[in-house]
Amino acid sequence: MRHNAKRSMAARIKRTGMAMLLLGLVLAAPIQAHARAVNDNVPLKTMYHDPYTNDKVRMQNVYRVSRVVTGQETTGIAFNRPNDLFVGENDQLFIADTGNNRIVELDASGQWVRTYGADEGDGKLNAPEGVFADSQGTVYVADTGNKRVAVFGPNGHFLRAYGKPESELLPERYYFVPKKLVVDARGGLYVVIENSYQGLLRMDREGRFKGFFGANKAELDLMSGLKQKFYTQEQLDKETANRPPAATNLAMDASGFFVTITGGGATSRLKLLDAAGIDRLGGKELDAELVDAAVDRNDFLYALDRRKGNITVYDPEGRDLVDFAQLTQDTWQRGMLRYPTSLAVNAKAELWVADSQMNVIQLFTRTEFGENFFAGISHYVSGDYEKSKPNWEAVKQSNDMIHISYQALGKIALSEGRYADAMRDYRLAYDAKGYSEGFWNVRQDWIQSRMPAVAGVLAVVLVAFRLTRSWRAAAWRKIRWPGAMRQTGSDLRDALRLMIHPYEGFYRLKERRVPLLSLAVLVAAVVAAKLGSLYMTGFIARPADRGHIDLTRELLLFLLPWLTWVVANYLVSTVKDGEGRFREVAQASAFSLVPYVVFTVPVVLASNVLALEEQVLLNWLTSIMWIWIAVLFFVMTQVIHQFDFMESAKNAMTTVVTIALIWVFGAVMSGLAFNLYNFFYQIYREVLFRGWI
Q1: 569 in a domain, yes or no?
Q2: CATH value at residue 160
Q3: Share of the chain above pLDDT 90, in %
Q4: Residues pairing with 181 in the sheet
Q5: Where does residue 349 fall: left (phi above 0), alpha (psi -120 to 50 degrees), or beta otherwise?
Q6: How far apart are CA 110 and CA 95, in angstroms?
Q7: Domain containing 514: what range?
């Protein structure tokens, strides 16, 4: 009985344990499913490149991951180091599955169609790294391991192979190791050969050598230039040849232009070459490790960066728009890249991206926001502004911080004759040129409608001013100004007179002590003029957000050079037996800034009524102002210290050098002071952490 009771108890414990285990699995299943859902919907980090502020701004996703292909679900064999992708005429995807020595073809939906080069025989591939399919379905493979180009028919059967072409123009030690390739409309092959600094190797459809195309230029640094200039020919022959870098990948757009990538170093070169080999991008050298690029049917260019693990999109004019995706070395999630190798774009502007370390291929599909964003840019660049309007309205509705949408809406408003609306939108886009076009038309309309009335008012004011001249003069004389204000007014008149007659003015200034109130008012006027130039200059002359002005920094950068000049000029002149005292140098330097006030006020006012083409007048006035100030500083040095012309010139140059030394010394001392402060602060934190106080 006791034995049976024990067995019954054990059975109940076992059943209870099984029930708890099943309950745990049931409860854990939703948690795991939720975790998988979170991983499958990781938001891509999308950054918008603002062309006016040069900032990168986080914005809504323009792409999302809609599918991940591993190869196992389509071919029964998982991908092993997929190295190249190509999208064919019908959006079928060709994959250079390097580690499995094969080319895999998938249809537009990602289903397996056929495999190339896996069977034994002449068509057997060995570590293929590039693939291309022409409009007839013929597949060309950079059969890297076999050092050849293999060609297959549309049904997958092997047709022929191209080895190293026979040509006297090819060096004997030219190693034919194909890495990537494209084929033009006439059947000509353009092949990236490993470490081939000569450029892309060209072959005709018969495999005959036709030359090189799109070679890079050698980088000539300073040392190489000096060697070329001073070394003998014998010494130069012993030097290692300065070879241009070799292209590492290429693609071809619908117009037959070639996209070439030169990577492998700290920077990468991205080129868009026409038939003549001219780079339409103007030579983009990027801080990136580009590995592949593709162009869609609307001429958007997509570049894949292995170092950052992201994709950058360029508009049809070559300006970078956005980048998305990101690098990960942790647990892989959809949308994350670990070691990206290739990308390809289909007719829907969907992106297939291969990752050879994760052995997966991801399909990036545009979001609704991305569809509106890219459609708006495409219509805008092509000049179809009206068609782009609903796209930009939708973009603005989702994100009102994207300046390019306001630029496009401004262009639309301008073409529709809504000039005030165009000015508003262009201002939000920080586009001074577009704003000026709208402003020109608004100003023209204002002049035509109000000019007679304005002219009449000005005439009445002028007549009244002339008729009341004697009365105003008498009234002015009756005013009893306090002594300090009267003295300040007299000093300010002397400052204006000094502008026109600097030698006379500085000689008079040397013989007197200017009250501190007068100097303070003069410096305050200069500061006020600076503030006016910062906050009141017209948008066309200063297309910036006034709210982002760092006032402290601006004033320091404006006043510190003047203060440093006062100190440095006095020190240098004292060493050189100058007669000026510090007070004389300081007050003369303050009076030398008067042209800044005199010129800045009309320049700021005029900047609000002049169009962009007329701003050159303001540039001239500003240049004249700085030249005038420099002349006054020079004359001041000559008069205050009683130097002749050459002594003054030497003193001015020495003062400039002294100013630079003072700034360097100040920067060094600031750094040391910060380090000392940080040292004691860390000690203080350590003491607090250990509870010693």
Answers
A1: yes
A2: 2.120.10.30
A3: 50
A4: 191
A5: left
A6: 11
A7: 485-676
